[in-house]
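Input for the complex:
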Amino acid sequence: AQKVTQAQTEISVVEKEDVTLDCVYETRDTTYYLFWYKQPPSGELVFLIRRNSFDEQNEISGRYSWNFQKSTSSFNFTITASQVVDSAVYFCALSERRSSASKIIFGSGTRLSIRP
Amino acid sequence: GAVVSQHPSRVICKSGTSVKIECRSLDFQATTMFWYRQFPKQSLMLMATSNEGSKATYEQGVEKDKFLINHASLTLSTLTVTSAHPEDSSFYICSAIRLEGSSYNEQFFGPGTRLTVL
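Predicted:
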């Protein structure tokens, strides 16, 4: 069975600090996809990144970076020089590729608060 | 990018009434849509997979007679919460699969519908 664990329930940092959100996943499939989504107070999910299981290259997008390590089944997300607008709930998620329409399983989320 | 809409965005109803929530893919066809439920301060939990022209597939523990799903066209899926009760109050989010020529079929999420049952 697939599972996504986000051990950090809530994180609070001061603006401009760097912060890392942890994500550990479980799956028996060799082909799968990992995601990060941001959910601001409005509730609408904002897609941040998708990574397939064959691509372990780290990714950087502006202040955001992601570290994917299959050896530890982790897909961590780092925000550099955090800003108040980064405050939101962040979800890590997993999708197994068993069919053309695979469902996405979400972690429990990490509530990130950036204090001015 | 592809757009998925939900209507209504917010609904308040009395206990015992039925509520219908629509999920539309605005600029693409979606043979498959998913319905999720999110209770306050919790994660998104998949309720069911909605396939155009066939019966929905429900996740374990989700009552199919209470949460009726109809996927009548390639751009519309509806979720009807029948005889709603206060414990059904939640944030309901749909997503739609856009079939692509690549190996991955992108899933796009709607903005959600907040249901409050009094």
